[in-house]
Amino acid sequence: MSEPEKKVARREFFTVGFSRMRASAAGMLETLVESKIRRRHIRPPGAAGELEFLSRCTKCEDCIQACPHDAIVHLPASAGPAAFTPAIQPTKSPCRLCKEVACATACTTGALRPVLQKNVKIASIRFDRGACYAWTSMPCDYCHKWCPLKDQAITLDEESRPIFDDRVCSGCGACLKECPAKPAPLSLTPL
After folding, report:
1. Whole-model pTM?
2. Is 62:106 a contact under the CB 8 Å cutoff?
3. Taken in order 20, 23, 26, 27, is the CA torsion positive or negative?
4. CATH 3.30.70.20 region(s) of the chain?
5. So what CATH class is 121-190?
6. What is the DSSP letter of 69?
């Protein structure tokens, strides 16, 4: 190999090497940022990942206006980077899983994407049988009665006690809102 060919090969080696290092570093940085900006709020149905959601949401409130159940609010200034973006606060007004998923349909920026009602998953539910009236002391079926996915996400066993299926549950929070036990045996974790 002649001297000019060696210089070209060396230059190409470093150019390709630095490009790969830069791409790898960018990917690691994106993963790090995504892990630091994890979802802390329950977003409306069809929400993109938190980083993408925050970059696409213009805080226009179209989803808030479209919600037929007034379940979506904008977060306060104290929410930091998520301030004034839409969220659902189940203990105040849970998502009622409207058939048309109006909030996602109203979003034109891609922060919320169209989703079928049966595919909505906005939070993960945890259930503590030890704090549930039906499991400890008295008859109660409020969670089952108010669940929009009754007999799918929440079924009742032979003693009319609730059984939750987190694989089916949308995380809408209707059960949490209507539960008479205080503190409620239910909690939601944003996805």
Report:
1. 0.78
2. yes
3. negative
4. 121-190
5. alpha beta
6. T
